[in-house]
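ENTRY TYPE: paired fold submission
RECORD: A
CONTENT: sequence, then structure tokens
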Amino acid sequence: MERHYRLDWALLEGGWRRDVGVAVDDQGRIAGIETADSGAAADSRTSSDAERVAGFVVPGMPNAHSHAFQRGMAGNTEYRLSSRDSFWTWRQAMYALARRITPADLEVIAAQLFVEMLKAGYTSVAEFHYLHRQVDGTAYELTNELWDAIARAADTAGIGLTFLPTLYQTSDFGAQPLKPEQSRFALTTDEFLRAVDTRVRAERRLASPRLRTGAAFHSLRAVPLETLREAVRGLISIDAELPVHIHIAEQLKEVEACRASTGRRPIELLLGTGVVNERWCLVHATHATPAELRDIAAARAAVCVSITTEANLGDGFFDAACFLESNGRICVGSDSQASVCPAEELRWMEYQARLRKRRRGVLADAQEPHVGNRLWRDAARHGAAALGQPAGVIAAGARADWLALDADHPSMAGARAATALDHLIFAGGRPAIRDVMVAGRWVVKGRRHAAEERLAEPFRELMGRLALEGA
């Protein structure tokens, strides 16, 4: 049965429109849209049962890169061990958490995190998941309890989920064996492909409007090139449209190690395989050269930047201006959960560019002079494609994933439709996110998620225990 909505203002594919009527079908997809200036009376606008949505309605943001378990570290690693602290020292703390987290712990953390994502404006998430085995490194016998924990958490929160089982086989270039602290990440190529195939078949039977299975390669450090090629062939045979993600060129040490081992830089090496296309999402690409960025754009792959994580870990600056000038497809994610806020990721994407160029409005263009509109629309559209989900726009056939911004909130004072996203991103507008819809269902209403109160105490208790164990 269709549900009808009347939106005061909505950001459609053709720009901002007022008095927009939207019909949503029972699968949570937009069945039709009519606007006040379309010249036709819309059932969705004139129906007596249409729900009025005040304020500014924008597409929800897909989170294109998340490691949910790392929410258990947030705030617990911000102290100095030595003057040479870096990503590589932080990684030891991450391994320590990964070694002891249980499926029950993971479900508590992920459910809390996914609610936080929804309230911040993320309506779907790509969970880049490499926790596969039990604490002692043995495989789960019947069902992978760690994978199931993520699925249950997403269902509790009501967020769209693209689950990315991640292949992780080696500790460094040259096929170095995994270290003991990495034992929970191990999968053979056959195990990986069988697990992806099983999930894809189950997903097709379930036909859930919120779920999608993809696949990921942790990095070229963790997956030898021939193994990657073999696995890609297997993935294509399972589902030729499967989204595929990989960490790449995040750290200078990684780039240097790749060059020492193979004679080529990691992005150059990956693109040289010929497997990268529009289904791929390259995560970070922090240390890409301008030529590499142009080559990624030419391959039609997306790049996901997680600027708050990259800043937290001291990774470096991604050259967003160069990538966008090459018509690159850019999206954002929360990665290590140093921050869970798409507006902050986009704000700092622009601010990094301003600091590099010593100019303002760097990432706007002639077609869209408002930085907020340009960044939000691009990241939402390309993020949805990276997740393989029918979202990221308010359009017929797309899933109804929306944010309703409260025009009366102080952070939105003075905002017009054209500047609403500028306010959200640059005027501290996150509290203005009043309501959040996923697949045609309100999951946040009046800034409140129905599950947040019952999730709060188990999460506090767990975080207290993890902090003590990590001391």
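RECORD: B
CONTENT: sequence, then structure tokens
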Amino acid sequence: MSYGYTARLIQKNKEASGRSLGVKLGRLCIKHDLSVSEVANTLGVSRQAVYNWFTGVNTPKPPLTDLIEELISEL
């Protein structure tokens, strides 16, 4: 199933710093077609928070960083 990430989200993710944990997660989710909603549900946060991480607007804070690193390693 394709979640059809918007061209805008993909472009913002590409423009954001790849050093950010949220941006790295976003790149992997786009590559593996893992939806923002699925990530949000897995981490217990809002879809808006995940979107902001993917685009580099905000960065995830501990203790979520450990969960995100675990999710990244599974992708």
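NOTES ON RECORD B: The chain has one domain: 7-74. The chain is about 65% helix and 0% strand.
STATUS: closed
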